[in-house]
Amino acid sequence: MTQTEDKTSLSTEDTPLVPIEKVVALCKRRGYVYPNSEIYGGVSGIYDFGPLGVELRNNIRRFWWWSMVQLNDNVLGIEGSIITHPRVWEASGHVENFVDRLVDCKKCKRRHRVDHLPAENLEQNKCPNCGGELTEPRVFNLMMETYIGVVEGERMKTYLRGEACQNIYLDYDNVLKSSRIQIPFGICQIGKAFRNEVTPGNFLFRQREFEQWDLQFFVHPSEMQKWFDYWKVYRFEWYRSIINHKDRLRFRAHGPDELAHYAKQAYDIEYKSIIGWQEWEGIHWRQDWDLSRHSQYSGQDLSYTDQETKERYIPWIVETSGGVDRTFLNLLLDAYEEEPPSGKDKEGRTVLHLHPWLAPIKVAVLPLQKNKEELVTTAKGIHNRLKRLMVAQYDDVANIGRRYRRQDEIGTPFCVTVDFQTLEDQTVTVRERDGMTQIRRAIDELPGYLVEKVTWK
Ligand code: ATP
After folding, report:
1. Is the Cβ–Cβ distance between 75 and 113 less than 8 Å?
2. Nearest CA, atom 17, ligand 1
3. What stretch of H or E contains 161?
4. Which of 279, 321, 325 is the best mutation target for the ligand 1 pocket, counting ligand atoms within 8 Å of the beta carbon and taking the most?
């Protein structure tokens, strides 16, 4: 993949990790994320996205789609439904095995997932929070049940999908036959998934309704290792290209006790934040497990015939599976900075160093004063031109310093200020967020200049 390195990337090795509460507060204050059903007390692990949040989500999704589907000739996209035939979840093993084992602390009443307990607490049956004794593990299935049909007694129990990727296996044969594509090829999807997580928390990190992105790449068994290595690197570089703190990204190889029985290897791409090194995306060796199981449970032959050699086989699969919401959260944690007062900004500022490609608002157009009609008319004219090309905001409330800080806090990479010189020579000030540098540009050059800065390359 040839993605342009982030030119605005910061040297931030010594920057402290950002407390999640700071990002939660900013998200609420500025309209990125709200607790769902807040007026009724909220629902744990479920969130809504506000005006800025929806723009950021759309940009994140678009960037993933662009780099996975649009840039790769051998990858196609689908959008499957949330509800499927219930047999899907028997075949996938979710009905039987998609469980969390939980223990409760008898003293502080905290609940812990057994697979998240540190080894020493597990051995000594001790709560990591208070040292209290833990209960025997109890098992909970994470699938969310629902019903199809209206007549009592004839309704069919099924599930809201627990992972989005099952649609890809279900549609694999249709995509193959309708697209005239041949192995090796991949199918991508972005979609909602639902899990009755027993320990939701850390804001968007572990939710009950969230969005996943998956690539399932179908290969001949002899080429499995080659493609596994290829996508592993590709996905790592993708994440690297959108963060500032490059040293906070790493691979973690799954140990033998974590690997599924069919998996030769698996890696998590992990990001380090205030909650430690945590999975951001999984790179999985799925072999022929999924298509074999669906062949077996559906009775449909999902094998593939090579056009040249006539060899018939069940394709093996490389999976890359990550989350839109974890990307959203990690990007905000990565981008958030509280800068102390300096020569350039006497009061200090909170700034989101979001990649210009991903920032919800690309440019804010600001008349220096709102009581000077010519400044306002010119600024509105510029805003009207720019908003056809990118998400642009017009703002004339408060003094110019305040307005810059408001835009810094929501991550807007550029502010265009219309001042008195504009009225003389048709130039404006373009102020850049990270370095707070200011240059002058002719109004006519602005669209080209900004489009170049804020679009994928
Ligand atoms: P974990 O071990 O953290 O429960 P997992 O291994 O079950 O995660 P996968 O089923 O592999 O996760 O899901 C793929 C991706 O979906 C994860 O890497 C993560 O980005 C995202 N994801 C999984 N569960 C959640 C959740 N409850 N909330 C938000 N995102 C999630």
Report:
1. no
2. 322
3. none
4. 279
Q: Is the CB of 161 under 6 A from ligand 1?
A: no
Closest to 64 (Cα-Cα) out of 130, 126, 3, 139: 3
Q: Up-side HSE of residue 454: CA atoms within 13 Å toward CB?
A: 27
**What phi-psi label fits residue 427: left (phi over 0), alpha (psi between -120 and 50 degrees) or beta?**
beta
Give residue 13's pLDDT.
56
Mutate to test the pocket of ligand 1, among 89, 117, 210, 211 (most ligand atoms within 8 A of CB): 210
pLDDT, the chain, mean: 93
Q: How far apart are CA 412 and CA 351, in angstroms?
A: 9
In whole angstroms, give the CA distance from residue 260 to residue 19: 34
Does 59 sit in the ligand 1 pocket, CB within 6 Å?
A: no
- Location of structure tokens 């594509």: 181
Residue 344's pLDDT is what?
Answer: 67
Instruction: Report the nearest-CA residue for atom 15 of ligand 1.
Output: 322
Write out pLDDT tens, residues 339-381.
998 876 778 899 999 999 999 999 999 999 999 999 999 999 9
Residue 21 phi/psi, 5-degree rounding, is: -60, -35
**What is the distance in A from the centroid of ligand 1 to the CA of 163?**
9
Query: Per residue, what are the HEC states of 171-234?
Result: HHHHHHHHHCCCCCEEEEEEEEEECCCCCCECCCCECCEEEEEEEEEEECHHHHHHHHHHHHHH
